Amino acid sequence: MVRVGLLTSGGDCQALNAAMRGVVKGLSNNIKDLEVYGFFNGYKGLIYSDYRLLTSTDFSGILTKGGTILGSSRCPFKEMRTPDENGLDKVEAMKSNYYKLNLDCLVILGGNGTQKTANLLREEGLNIIHLPKTIDNDIFGTDMTFGFYSAIDVACDAIDRIHTTAASHNRVFIVEVMGHKVGWLTLYSGIASGADIILLPEIPYEEKYIIDAIEKRNQAGKGFTVIAVAEGAISKKESKLSKKELAKKRAKETHPSAAYRIAKLVEEKTGSEARVTVPGHTQRGGSPCPYDRALCTRLGSAAAKAIIEGKFGNMVGIIDGETKLVPLEKVAGKLKVVDPDSKMIKEAKYMGISFGDEDV
Ligand code: F6P
Is there an atom of ligand 1 within 6 Å of 11 CB? Predict the structure, then answer.
């Protein structure tokens, strides 16, 4: 008998169900006696014994279904060692449930924070397999995270739709794209939808260059400008502040987020009308795109093989188009950021896209 636990933790994304289906199909196709336990709402389910024995019907028909059949929640890594309000030791509680169910492995689907806790549980002696989930694509050690391509579709669609209305009204439109501290999603969706200016956390902007790029377009007779701004975008000045100083500055600001900051700047400095669109959590919603379905099926299958072969303590990543087991200890706590000197950025700049950091 092989007993496997499954949980999905952190912000959801489109292909979580597809990935779990991949794992369970890979296991059930190769093991006769299998029990799969699903823990509900991320680590909370593992801490507070909220789980259910799942059957193959739970995994039928979910390849194309967004969200997660197990539910998810954010349980910050930094609070894992802090007892809960009733004094419960969360790490010990998770271990105790793992051993109580006699699990052979726990498959954890999640992003960076989730991965840190997965690594902690590995250090505590549990058999762990991690699958890299996030629309942000910021997990170190894998070329791609699942959810990323699906989110590009949504963000790109939002910017595409803005393009037609921007052209009709001769305005500056600013679309704020998710991505937390990194700019992958903004970079890909911005390029794919023909944004004129792309602002990323990895390339701090100078106000002057944003304004210059807009004015240059106006002078060329293009009365509108579309700006894709990452939620984490910062100015050059802000990039010099400490984390604490930046938080203090943000707390004093009246605009709610990056796109509104840029809109205010544009209106003050150019006199043009600016409009903001924030697709927000729609970027994580809906069905996974075909690429993510295929990716998750591959990652799930590779995870099942790793479990059967007893290769625990790994993330199943994808590198150069091939699935690969990557030791958690080598990647946990590291962030994969956009390289400002990468070819992709250089190619975009070469054809006139402004990143707000130099003249175009
Ligand atoms: O990590 C995924 C993500 O959607 C980020 O892009 C975003 O910053 C964050 O989660 C939003 O978190 P929440 O769903 O908790 O508001």
Answer: yes
